[in-house]
Specification:
Helix content is 53%, strand content 3%. Helix 3 crosses helix 8 and helix 6 crosses helix 7. The protein starts with a helix and ends with a helix.
Length: 146
């Protein structure tokens, strides 16, 4: 075995252990800015709410097996903390209304709907790696399938 093959990262990445990304939320960008997760978007180091750092291709290339995507409605109070979101009201009024003028439960449901549609879209484009699971048992089944 080479030094690379002996490394712990290589053994995990190419072995049986699933790689889990616990902090990524492409569902929010897909919902807010109509990003398509089967396409590549540019990402830069500066703050850019429109950039997309995680799409299905990048997750697959990075060896990510499981994506834990926290789905939540942004709190209305964040508008006071972020100047850019204040501008959203004027620059993207439809998006602003969709996020900040609906109740939290409905917004969260819409985000889940968008994410499920993104997964369906990936299947239609021939990328069969993405699956929405809603229970531990379903996750185990998907991981067992490889």
């Amino acid at each position: 075995m080479s030094d690379q093959e002996n490394s712990i990262w290589w053994q995990i990445h190419h072995g049986d252990a699933p790689i889990v990304d616990m902090h990524v939320h492409p569902s929010l960008k897909a919902f807010l800015f109509k990003r398509v997760l089967t396409m590549r978007f540019g990402a830069n180091r500066a703050f850019n709410p429109f950039s997309m750092r995680a799409d299905f291709g990048r997750l697959e290339e990075g060896g990510v097996d499981v994506l834990l995507s926290t789905v939540y409605a942004p709190e209305r109070g964040i508008i006071g903390d972020c100047v850019y979101l204040k501008l959203l009201r004027f620059l993207m009024p439809i998006t602003y209304h969709k996020v900040f003028r609906q109740n939290y439960f409905d917004v969260t449901g819409h985000i889940l709907d968008v994410m499920e549609e993104q997964v369906c879209q990936s299947w239609r484009r021939g990328r069969r790696g993405a699956t929405v699971v809603t229970s531990v048992g379903a996750l185990d089944e998907v991981l067992d399938e490889g």
